[in-house]
Amino acid sequence: MGLSIFLGGVSWGEPLAGVNVNPADWERLAAWEAWTGGKAEMVGDNLYAVDWDGLSGANPQNGVGHSLERWRQGFRSGKLRGGSAADYAFELAVPMFPDLMKDDERRWYVGMGDEAIGELGWLERGRAKRVRKDAERAFRSLARVLVREGFGKARLRLGWEFNLDEDAWRIEGNPERWDDFQAVWRNVHGWMMSEPGAEFTWVWNVLLGYNEEARAGSFDPVRHAYPGDEYVDVVSCDVYDGHPHYFYRTANEAGAGEEEMARRWEMMWVFLAEGRRMAEDGSGGVVVEGVPCLESYRAFARERGKLFAISEWGLVGGLEGGRDNVYFLERMHAWMRASEVAYANYFEFMEVGEDGETVVVDHALMPGYWEWGRERREGSERRYLELWHSRAAGARE
Q: 282: which DSSP letter?
């Protein structure tokens, strides 16, 4: 039995074994439930919006509204183990602002209080106030739509992976945005929680392995991006068996054998779990230590009295990944069981390029999905089912 979370308390056991099927891929959720042999204990999805209309959730043809329409289709299909959003524990990654927001509008939205806006010229002042009103209107609408559609108790992962340089709301390397990030979080929290029926849980989420400068005292998520205990319920990490710069790339490029890959697996785990980057030459030397890691974020969650979760985790394909890495699955499972992890969503995702053949991103475990990828994962498929679902690979319902 997985972790049970009630309003009145918490009982610990196995972490809830969930899956992220971004973007609103309910067909993949149905396949996952058939593969694992039961209803998913947790379901994750990442929401996207290019404008405030899309973020509001009110337009079924645009942004978040389109994702919610996809979920409605799934629940009506009869192919899922649950018949509505309320039948699942959902975690939804929520954008902090639309993707296509103009730079000046973003500046007014994230970096200016009423006093600063008042110092603008009359034309800019009017536009700045309008942007702030658009934002409030969109997030209040989003809260109402989520409640109406059965997501009123969802976990909301606002501004997820803010320390990754691919996202518009990233703040690593941007000291002028550190306070802004916290202020926007608090505003969005207030707008959404004030709507009737809103019982959201708020998840503060980072991606491991992408902010080594924290060790030097510059950007540190827990010091520069945490909005405050009143506004956060869960501290979570996204954890992947891969990194764009080291550990696996050189080994894969050289066609390393099993023994060398096993050494790299251990190095990667030490980096993710303990924050120490070991020398790749096999000398045993430590190149960097004190990098934010699983242990440090778990300790932070305990210090602040928050639940700790893994919002996304998975294998990585290509040169940056560790191939069919059963070792990673086993270490993650053991660490989660020993660390009071509330839930863990495997990121069951694969993206194929416009040519219909080139795999751009590959984290998939399920048969029929990873087989499109760059490498085979029979061992990982089998071990995942054994560890998380006590089920043998190949079993079908």
A: S
pLDDT tens-place string over residues 14-63: 789 999 999 999 999 999 999 999 999 999 999 999 999 999 999 999 99
Rounded distance between C-alpha atoms, residue 230 and residue 7, angstroms: 16
Q: State the Cα–Cα distance between residues 68 and 61, nearest whole angstrom.
A: 10
What pLDDT is attached to residue 129? 76
Tokens standing for residue 312: 């996304």
Closest residue by Cα to residue 70 from 110, 108, 105, 43: 43
Alpha-carbon gap, residue 347 to 310, rounded angstroms = 10
Task: For residue 93, list its beta bridge partners.
Answer: 46, 157
Residue with tokens 């559609």: 149
DSSP string, 238-293: EEEEB-SSSSSHHHHHTT--HHHHHHHHHHHHHHHHH--EEPTTSS--EEE-----
The model's pLDDT over 221-257, given as tens digits with 9 standing for 90+, comes to: 888 889 999 999 999 999 999 877 678 988 988 899 9
User: Residue 362 and residue 150: Cα distance in Å, rounded?
Assistant: 31
Question: What is the C-alpha separation between 346 and 363, in angstroms, rounded?
Answer: 9
**Does residue 82 contact residue 39 with C-beta atoms inside 8 Å?**
yes
Residues 6+ apart with CB under 8 A from 166: none
Contact 272, 294 (CB under 8 A): yes
- The confidence band for 387, taking pLDDT boundaries of 50, 70 and 90, is very high
Is the separation of the CB atoms in 187 and 131 below 8 Å? Answer: no
